[in-house]
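User: Small ask, check this?
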Amino acid sequence: MFNPSEELESGWVDEVRQEVTEECSKFGAVTSCLVDANSNGHVYVIFSEIPGAQRAQAALHNRRFSGRRVVAEFLPEELFGNQHPVS
């Protein structure tokens, strides 16, 4: 969803987290969102309920975000944990 080498403004991680959380909240309650600034654009989102995650995955997969194609896939929750709760 982003290229870290192109993100030059301070606070870009929080901005991406806020935008993704806002968009994903349209499909269900988001409990956590992690922007992996050291990756090639990975953002991890945890929903409070599976149906919300399913709706988000169906709606967002192959969509564009800042000109980049979104690949929305499910991962086991234990790989992510609850490191960055949405406030």
